[in-house]
Amino acid sequence: MEMVNIKINGRDYSVPADSKIIDAARIAKIEIPTLCYLKGINEIGACRLCLVEVKGARGLMAACVTGVTEGMEIFTNTPKVREMRKTNLELVLSTHKKECLSCIRSQSCELQKLCRDLGVTEEDRFAGKNVEYPKDESTAFLVRDNDKCILCRRCVAACKNMQGIGVIDALNRGFDTHIGSAFEQPLAATSCVSCGQCIVACPVGALYEKDDTDKVWEALNDPTKHVAICTAPSIRATIGECFGYEPGTDTEGKMVAAIKRLGFDGVYDMNLTADLTIMEEATEFLERMKTGKNLPLITSCSPGWIKFCEHYFPEFTDNLSTCKSPQQMFGAMYKTYYAKKRGIDPADIVFVSAIPCTAKKFEVRRPGESAAGEGIYDVDYAITTRELARMIEKAGINYRELDDEKFDEPFDIGSGAGAIFGATGGVMEAALRTAAEVILGKKLEKVDFEDVRGTAPIKTATYKLGDTEVRVAVASGTKNARELLNKVKSGELKVDFIEIMACPGGCVNGGGQPVQSAAVKAAVDLKAKRASILYNADKHLAVRKSHENLAVQKIYDEYLEKPGSHLAHEILHTYYIKRGL
Amino acid sequence: MITIEQLNAVRKEYAPKVEMRHGHGHFVDAGDGIRKDVLICGGTGCTSSNSMAVRDALLAELKTAGIADEIKVVTTGCFGLCALGPIMIVYPEGTFYSKVKPEDIPEIVKEHLVGGRPVRHLLYHETVKGDEILALDQTPFYAKQKRVALRNCGVIDPECIQEYIAVDGYQALAKVLTTMTPSEVIKVVLDSGLRGRGGAGFPTGRKWMFAEAQPAGKKYVVCNADEGDPGAFMDRSVLEGDPHAVLEAMAIAGFAIGADEGYIYVRAEYPIAVHRLQVAIKQAEEMGLLGENIFGTGFNFKITLRLGAGAFVCGEETALLTSIEGHRGEPRPRPPFPAVKGLFGKPTIINNVETLANICQIILNGAEWFASMGTEKSKGTKVFALGGKITNTGLVEIPMGTTLREVVEEIGGGVPNGKKFKAAQTGGPSGGCIPAEYIDTPIDYDNLIAIGSMMGSGGLIIMDEDTCMVDIAKFFLEFTVDESCGKCAPCRIGTMRLLETLEKITSGNGTLEDIDRLEELSEYLKSASLCALGQTAPNPVLSTLRYFRDEYVAHVVDKTCPAHVCKNLMKYKILPDMCKGCTACARKCPVGAITGAIKAPHTIDPEKCIKCGVCITTCKFGAIVKE
Amino acid sequence: MKKKLTTVVFEDTPEKADKLAALISEYKDVEGSLMPVLQGAQDIYGYLPIEVQKKIAEGLGLSLSEVYGAVSFYSQFALNPKGKVAVSVCLGTACYVKGSGKLHEKCMEITGIGAGDISPDGRFSYEATRCIGACGLAPVMTVNGDVYGRITPSDVEGIIKKYL
To answer: How high is the pLDDT of residue B126?
Structure first.
């Protein structure tokens, strides 16, 4: 790597020649404050907080967009720089609705942290005129409170640049600039896919998930209700971050212990229905391979992806697997098979899922997701990792001090295949493990399909299974999905089976996951760190294939008969809508 | 494809046809039976005062008089004296008619064009000295001017490429393509000392050099014709009067940096300029002066016209590029500079219209010729749009180094109505004011910056004693607040807070701390804003504070507006000694604030008065005053 | 700068729709063509209602929000049709110094609407514009494109009446 020699605050450093000043400063163990910067996604130099002095330069330079050059002398901590940053924050505060005590982002707010770090003592020094905006609460999954928006445009970049969607943009000009959708339409009227990447991009409390925890508390307090919860594969890998653990810390046991203390009647592992999904989807895949119909088969676990497909690629909805997502399968099984088994009226069951995803809040009210009868939703409430963590906090549970506990029977077993659902490529690998054994008619010697792992935007591989060649492709992030599908559409890419996740990196990087600051995101590969937990779990599990999961086998034996059966279709499968734009 | 020989043939044919317009006073026989050329201004100023109706009346009258074949009527670009429009000049004698109305035409045709006797009472009064009729360049307005960028404005028909060729048009391009290397072209431009006329005054040759130094490949030449400073219309006049000069210069720039494509980004508010550019591009393409293989040299250059849509910030070069690319016209951080990464990510030079209008002359006459005009660090001439409280509003081109006094008192004819010159504002919302004590400052880039203003694109607004400097600062801040793109936090929020503070002061609620706040915010905006719009937005505040701080203090301490402009700080008063008690004012007052008995001094109830000023205009005795 | 959303019902004709389609296909593959397409569309319809912007977004492969983001950025793009009597006053420096602020107030008084508005009956629209370049005639107002220079507030009513 080509290096250049620079000075930061008088000290010598050798840094990669393609570094921006902000990267170079990080090498020098200096974190330059920013609000608008999101590495690789939003590099627009708009917030002006990262201004530094550079010897010989005409004015202050924005560290986030200015590249280093040989011999550059940078000063990040001069009186002028400190003064500018402070005034900048004071001006931003003059347009920000300061509900800091009650704000959902209190203590995870980047603006709040910077105000503290940079010594802002007067909140209202530049108080003046403000434009007031109505809150947008039109969707099931998201609230936009523009009164708190600081116009960093990270959400716009996440939506437009990262996800390739662009249902929001900067509107109007000057002091009237705000973020919104065309013609000030509510978000629900747009082709938003509900991935929630805008939320995790937001440095302040202007964007947040629609909170369903009150409804869950209410159910928990209702003695007539049977309240159960299942947790998605990825959240055990992330929820620790809400309690101060480093990204990449597995706290499954503590998570289960904490949830049990909230008063649920059952705490289950969604890995199990991930396996169930594989049973159905692998069967569906083999069937389609046989008939050649509606190929390539495309996975359906990610509701953000489903909505994306329905809006932007309606011509592909017939290619979607008709399998419900693991979350919906869980609720559906619970309110049919398990309710019957235990003699509970499904109408008295409140089924909650804890998920890394905001789109799941949309999914729970989709049509065709009421296996136990009309009006009885498979899943009543989907709460994000963040909401679950807030419930645990509210209950005063000392998460870090808990001893590990285990999920409740009989839905406590997941295979390694189910575990890796939470990372991009995981569903594909899980399906291949099962499909390959069916096709080959024997046990695989090696269950790792490493070509489909990792955080590359698009991955392709071809596997020769006996006489059958299976061509697969994996994409995460809707922008990459668009690219992949366009290639399939044009015939440039020929594949049989596609896995798509709406969020880049898959569920570990979902829109419902713990929010990390831009600084952490720039320094740590969150996607890879979080995913490593899942692959690690998979490696150490005795059962690594969905069809070998005994709990799954039991469900078929006792109830569903076999994968793809008539009953399985009734309970575990769904349909899609060609929405268009 | 056109050859140089063919170009020269056109020049030879048409040169005699335009020759007599060069002001030497004698007839030139072009062999086409034309006795006289009558030039009518078709610029925006004159067409707004109906010059096209005058032209139509003239054409009809010439027919009636049977001399349509002898008199050529030419619609030209701006002559500069916009306040006197519609303007009409008759050559070879060069008689200058001002404020011509269609009904004046029969007399002019009968007396002058048929009878040979200029109609004296319709002439521009400055050209009538007793019995003598002066030529235009003998009048004070023109005497001190030096027309380089405007040389063809008001001389040729901008919609006729042959007339442009007749005055050496496209000779510079021919010279460059056939006898010079790109680096030679750049050297000439560098040596001429030409600096960008759009605002910051960056040396044009250096800009070209940077772009030329980029690896070969797709590059662009962009002409910035998004002239947005309120009160500035130099670029418009060049485009309306001499569009080919800009096209030719762009092609030369393209050759110099290795670009084969150019864009002109022009304000949509300039329909005439847009039309003339469209016509000019089409004519140049048809003649092979733009397009493929120009003059058979293998050099290609095409020009696309793009219209702005009403955003001042798009005059900032990176915002302009973003706009051409089809987005919100928001600036982007520099570096990378456009010369490295510009339009569609390719190396790009962006030059303003007036800058380009100098290029062909520099190529033809040499760097030394250009560098012989102006001051040490500011070469050549500068076009200013003179406006505000000045007798001769219009367009003037002066050598750099001309003093403000010469511009105001001689060229501009002074401040009207016997009022006193208070300050001149240059550089529009990015600039500052020059107070009376600096009226003898030679105008150039560095002097203006030294006294806290800037050249800007060339708006020069004259203010008299009735102008409140705090109000002017507020006016410009209103403008920048309105035009701030909203991308960067300092400009979006800071300009609004600055404006609010000014509003507080002009409404009489200001404190001395507010003046400190103005300074603090201004310094902050200068350093922290993303682009020049925000960085220069505080200039009107800083420069008025610098020279007219006492006016600010009067507003906040004495709660008065010395110029009697700020409504909330103003009282209307009837002077009892002067009041005759005629009751006229009381009857006209829309809110019944004036009372008094007939033939007795009246009084105004300040509680009721809305300060509309009707009473002052009503009073015949000058008994009502503002204080 | 804030854009006012329209309350006027969109009226299309097959001729206009064809023109728009032709415009879009002309510019479809031109780099950065959003601005000329929006300008062309505004020439066709007089303003840029959602129905038109949707077609443009689809035709050029852009998101509607991006198109609207641009439309709402530039003051010349209109979300409202022009009134039968379209009045505007120049608030450029030269005009302002010569008192166009008072013309501005007078125009709002006579038309009964604010800057950037159209009256509910579609009769008036009013705009306060930036410099239109007729500084020599300051202060200036225009009605339906006709320029009136060197006027005082008392002239305004008479000028507007000519168009009623």
So the answer is: 87
Q: How far is CA B516 from CA A67, A349, B549, in A?
A: 36, 66, 11
Residues in chain C, pLDDT under 50? none
Tell me if chain A has a CB within 8 Å of the CB of B493: yes
Which residue, of C71, C105, C136, is where some domain finishes? C71
Which top CATH class is B469-558? mainly alpha
pLDDT at C65: 96
CA distance B375 to B195: 12
Cα gap A495→A473, rounded to integer Å: 7
In angstroms, the CA B361 to CA B369 distance is 9
Q: What is the CATH number of domain B571-626?
A: 3.30.70.20
**Which domain-ending residue is among C71, C93, C114?**
C71
The answer to whether A226 and A349 have CB atoms below 8 angstroms apart is: yes
Instruction: Tell me the pLDDT tens digit for each residue of B28-51.
Output: 898 899 999 999 999 988 888 889
d(CA A66, CA A56): 14
Interface test with chain C among A153, A173, A581, by most C beta carbons within 10 Å: A173
pLDDT, tens only, B60-101: 999 999 999 999 999 999 988 888 889 999 999 889 999 999
Chain A residues near residue B335 by CB distance under 8 angstroms: 66-67
Q: Is the pLDDT of residue B269 over 90?
A: no
Cβ(A569)–Cβ(A563) below 8 Å:
no
Per CATH, which fold does B381-464 belong to?
Ubiquitin-like (UB roll) (3.10.20)
Rg over CA atoms, chain A: 25
- Name the residue with tokens 């950037």: C116
Distance CA B344, CA B222 (A): 12
Q: What is the mean pLDDT of residues A515-530?
A: 94
Band of the pLDDT at B137, cuts 50, 70, 90?
confident
Q: Show the DSSP H helices in A320-410 as ranges.
A: 326-333, 339-342, 359-363, 385-394
A87: chain B residues, CB-CB within 8 Å = 520-521, 524, 528
Q: Based on the structure, what is the number of domains in chain C?
A: 2
Check if the interface score ipTM surpasses 0.90.
yes
| Helical axes A426-440 vs A271-291, angle rounded to 10° | 50
3-state helix, strand, coil in chain C (%, to 5): 45, 15, 40
The Cα of C53 is separated from the nearest Cα of chain A by a number of Å equal to: 9
- At residue C108, φ and ψ (nearest 5 deg) are -65, -35
Instruction: Give mean pLDDT, residues B90-114.
Output: 94
> Which CATH code fits B168-371?
3.40.50.11540
C contacts of B274 (beta carbons < 8 Å): none
Secondary structure letter of residue A319 according to DSSP:
G
> What DSSP element (H or E) covers C16?
helix C14-27
d(CA B134, CA B139): 7
Give pLDDT tens digits for B292-320.
Answer: 999 999 999 999 999 999 899 999 999 99
Report the pLDDT value the prediction gives residue B129, as an integer from 0 to 100.
85
**Chain B CB within 8 Å of residue C75 CB:** yes
Whether omega for the bond prior to residue A33 falls within 30 degrees of 0, making it cis, is no
Distance from CA of C54 to the nearest CA of A (A): 10
List beta partners, residue C90: C129
Confidence check: pLDDT of B550 > 80 = yes
Does residue B443 contact residue B407 with C-beta atoms inside 8 Å?
yes
- Domain parsing of chain A, residue ranges: 3-77, 142-210, 214-572
Residue C1 in domain: no
Domain B13-138 architecture: 3-Layer(aba) Sandwich (3.40)
* Cβ neighbours for B426, distance < 8 A, ≥ 6 positions apart: B432, B433, B434, B448, B453, B454, B455, B456, B458, B459, B460, B461
Per CATH, the number for A214-572 is 3.40.50.1780
